[in-house]
Amino acid sequence: MDSIVIQGGQELSGEVPIAGAKNACLALMPATLLTDQPLTLTNAPRLSDIRTMTSLLTSLGAEVSSLQNGRVLALSSHDLTSHRADYDIVRKMRASILVLGPLLARHGEAVVSLPGGCAIGARPVDLHLRALEALGATLELRDGYVHATANGGLKGGRIAFPFVSVGATENALMAATLAKGTTIIENAAREPEIVDLANCLSKMGAKIAGAGTTKIEVQGVDQLHGATHEVVLDRIELGTYMIAPAIAGGSVECLGGRIDLIDAFCERLDAAGLSVEQTKRGIKVSRKNGRLNAVDVKTAPFPGFPTDLQAQMMAMLTTADGVSNLEERIFENRFMHAPELQRMGAEIAVSGGTATVTGVARLKGAPVMATDLRASVSLILAGLAAEGETVVNRVYHLDRGYERVEEKLSGLGARIERMAET
Ligand code: UD1
Q1: Pairing state of beta strands 182-186 and 158-160?
Q2: What is the pLDDT of residues 211-243, one digit of tens each?
Q3: Taking the CB of the first residue and of the last residue of the chain, which one, N or C, has fewer CB atoms within 10 A?
Q4: Which residues pair with 220 in a beta bridge?
Q5: Cα separation of 184 and 161, whole Å?
Q6: What's the first-to-final CA gap in the chain, in angstroms?
Q7: Measuring CA to CA, which residue among 255, 283, 278 is closest to residue 20?
């Protein structure tokens, strides 16, 4: 497996382009299964998770062409040949479960393996399944697979989520577009990726109101048609590159960045003593002289502080002045980067869902191990600020969610390179 080698201590400057959102694209791609007409997605990110979703859709008989160097995906589900999503593909990526709702809605039948994905907690799919049952599906769990049927098609219904789930909201939303009658989704996720999916489905002819609020109403239609849709900007990649100058020093403009996508995060950077400015071209983050302030962070569903930026924020706070408490309230096992950051000299005590970080003056480079997607990038960020050399091993998780991270960071002045496995 490749590793990334960083010589720390370089200030960063310049601008960095931010890609389309992985998590939005992974929900938009299965929307092809809802129609026999073409769906075109522009501004797609070039990531291994997108290739995994491509393999999954292709295994169902969909056609997925990658155009313009991967930036445009042309999808067609005109001739689906299978409604079975196999373990071999699904285990690689939890978002594979998003084919369940659309397959069931269009074909009345789906068999989908229970998913794998990042090891950041139990991450069951019960909410997805309960939502589809509320739309009249019959479900059975057998041999690690969900067998779902909807004889006579799905019917509109009331789905009240006990807590917020991004993926379950997406599955429910896609399924409801072709269900007979009205569906009400209560306690729906409000993430920008949900709004993006709803916008695309509406272009395809779906009747959706309330996306971006806690209550979404969908009037089922008989069929959907083709559309072209631009994938929304990746707010997590955006936040990650905003932390780079925060940790290494300097000033970086993240092109396309919008504060409204990432408000709670910007507020915390501001409290830590950074300058965060919306410019015409994006968001510019500059670090003033001196140490950052310690700040407390609590992760929460949108519009709260994103769990997907918690690891990066922790990396930044390891050298802040004072004690910061980071409370992880979405996933129960999402501090795997903490022991790795400790290897670099960070002082972190984890107790239950809270990590207490006591800032140190400087981190020291060390060999570290990437454990999940966001943890991987937090170690790279830490390496930018550390004295000496940091080697981040097992970076395959990184390629699931960040395109050309070493190129983008070296473009900002970082000394970073990828070492291919020999
Ligand atoms: C999505 C994102 C992920 C992000 C997460 C939270 C994608 C591809 N991934 O993941 O990057 O970290 O939102 O913002 O978009 N849960 C259940 N039962 C379920 C579903 C979820 O108990 O059926 C729990 C999860 O274990 C977790 C919480 O609900 O504790 C929220 O998870 P959810 O919002 O569903 O995350 P994902 O959609 O998997």
Answers
A1: parallel
A2: 999 999 999 999 999 999 999 999 999 999 999
A3: C
A4: none
A5: 11
A6: 8
A7: 255
